[in-house]
Write a structure and sequence with these properties.
The chain is α+β, with helices and mostly antiparallel strands. 33% of the residues lie in helices and 16% in strands. The chain is built from 19 helices and 20 strands.
């Protein structure tokens, strides 16, 4: 009874909480670049739906954030119909070509390829799905003609856009091997041979031409015809030519399913089905519901200890059991069973961070082994709410920074297949759920979320980029919004702490005074480095007098509305 009362109090607090953040009475877009957010807002002001605006936002992001997304990338989306309260999960995840085998990332001697070599190989690209997914969703929920939604992106491509500080930092970064590839060097070089930097004008008329074809033909423009031929030709070139064919592209189909939902406190939290990262977030919330975290807050070391241990548990399960459910048995019901989560929660307070927990044994669990896939980040997230209350929460990706470093017709190709386990079995011989197979979707960390009240009304939407850190970023933000009644902006700005396996990544300088030392005394040492891709949390909360948005201060995003 105490928990029910606390949940009802939280519901009232979240719905009516006063906020210092700007409110939009009618509609809002939160996205990682102002040019993209404003393109979506323009569509909404012209009477377009959230899905119309999503098309405009994605096409601009693929131009101005090429380190994060592409029309040759993939995406997960969850959509709320504001009138019926029906939730739909859309899956535009890339798939492995028909000729792919479990040995795709193995050398001749059977050992895995070095990760940096695999990323820029022809083997790394999956059949792209983001445009096909958007096209399907727009057919069902769009209001304005598909072809009318590309104007801002076309103009920015043809006339040029100003290179932002974040993009300039990616261009100058010595780390990703993509930056050393010929296409990347050519695209980001000025006439004098120097690299582009902040404030330079970047013109990409080839991308403008591609957009005009997509506007006229839909996803067929890149999955068939000359652009598809360019994709296949580029992937068949050295190093390590890949197996993708024109037939692979032509046969791509996005997935559509009911959303995956579970209760948390007085709310219903929903995301995409496997192989997305939504299941991990829901398990993490289910574990935390059996703790006292709602009575704590962001300045309390014990709260962060509980978050870190819940993350370790959810990652151990996710990294072992999750794969493409069309190919492997994923024990979703067992992992999200409240009784199982309660058992896992009993481990909180007993774990040693130097020795991460093993996966649990939920009902229906197959006999599979732990997958330690790296999943580097190169992703973006946006949320859109329109005047009718329709909501899009979408995470979109090219996988790593600038994808595989190969470019055709103005856009980078993805390296999404490096999300698969390079080895199909563990050292002990157990099969790995996330092993490569023909036509299979790699496991993803992307976790777009929508939160409803128990009557099905919209409460909030959130998501983040960040590679395998995404579930941790999203978990922290939902706890901050629901349990600690924070604004979306303040929740997004909270320190990040990712505890996965034997790795602890964090932002020690962002924690409240005393938290880092107190955690160290409890055995959780926060390292000074922060190796994960920074978060890009974007979200929207419904308040009594409008929509409140939040944009992660670690990126260049904004929340705009009217």
């Amino acid at each position: 009874m105490q928990r029910i009362i606390a949940g009802l109090v939280g519901l009232l607090a979240l719905a009516g909480a006063a906020s210092a953040e700007p409110l939009a009475p009618h509609a809002m877009v939160a996205a990682a670049n102002p040019l993209a957010a404003n393109a979506g807002l323009k569509v909404l002001k012209a009477g377009g739906s959230a899905m119309d605006a999503a098309v405009a936002v994605q096409m601009v992001l693929a131009l101005v954030e090429p380190q994060s997304t592409s029309v040759a990338g993939g995406a997960f989306m969850i959509y709320l119909d504001g009138r019926t309260h029906k939730l739909t999960a859309y899956d535009g995840r890339e798939v492995a070509p028909a000729a792919a085998t479990p040995a795709l990332f193995l050398k001749d001697d059977g050992t895995p390829l070095p990760f940096g070599q695999a990323i820029v190989s022809g083997h790394s690209a999956g059949v792209p799905g983001a445009v096909a997914m958007l096209y399907l969703a727009h057919k069902e929920h769009g209001r304005q003609p598909w072809a009318s939604l590309f104007g801002d992106a076309e103009k920015l491509a043809d006339d040029g856009f100003t290179v932002s500080p974040r993009l300039a930092g990616m261009i100058a970064s010595p780390f990703p091997p993509q930056n050393k590839q010929p296409d990347t060097i050519h695209y980001f070089s000025k006439p004098d041979g120097t690299r582009m930097t902040t404030g330079d004008l970047l013109v990409n008329r080839a991308y403008g031409d591609t957009l005009r074809k997509i506007a006229a033909e839909g996803p067929r423009a890149i999955l068939t015809g000359p652009i598809a031929a360019d994709i296949v030709k580029r992937l068949h070139e050295d190093p390590l030519p890949g197996p993708m064919t024109l037939a692979d592209l032509a046969h791509y189909q996005p997935h559509q399913a009911p959303a995956l939902c579970r209760p948390y406190r007085a709310y219903i939290v929903c995301s995409d089905q496997a192989p997305s990262g939504g299941m991990a977030v829901l398990e993490g919330l289910g574990i935390l519901e059996h703790t006292d975290i709602a009575t704590r807050g962001p300045t309390d070391p014990q709260a962060w200890l509980e978050i870190a241990e819940a993350e370790q548990l959810m990652y151990a399960d996710r990294d072992t059991y999750e794969g493409d459910p069309a190919f492997v048995s994923v024990p979703v019901a067992g992992l999200l069973d409240p009784a199982y989560e309660a058992e896992r929660a009993k481990l909180i307070g007993t774990m040693a961070f130097a020795a991460p927990p093993a996966a649990g044994h939920p009902a229906g669990a197959p006999n599979v082994g732990l997958d330690a896939t790296a999943e580097p980040g190169g992703t973006s997230h946006f949320v859109i709410v329109d005047a009718e209350g329709n909501v899009v929460s979408m995470t979109t990706t090219v996988e790593s920074i600038f994808g595989d470093g190969r470019m055709v017709d103005g856009f980078f190709l993805n390296n999404q297949l490096t999300d698969f386990s390079f080895s199909p079995k563990t050292a002990g011989g157990l099969p790995i759920a996330n092993a490569v197979a023909a036509g299979k979707r790699p496991r993803s960390s992307m976790a777009p979320m929508i939160i409803l009240d128990k009557q099905g009304a919209f409460v909030a939407a959130v998501g983040s980029p960040g590679g395998n850190a995404i579930p941790a970023y999203v978990l922290k933000t939902i706890v901050a919004v629901i349990d600690w009644h924070m604004s979306m902006q303040d929740a997004a700005a909270l320190p990040n702490l990712i505890a996965r396996g034997g790795s602890i990544q964090s932002e020690p300088k962002k924690f409240a005074p005393g938290v880092v030392d107190a955690l160290a005394a409890k055995g959780l040492k926060l390292n000074a480095g922060y190796a994960a891709e920074g978060s890009g949390i974007h979200g929207v909360i419904k308040r009594d007098d409008g929509y409140e948005g939040g944009a992660d201060p670690r990126r260049e995003g904004v929340a705009v509305g009217y």
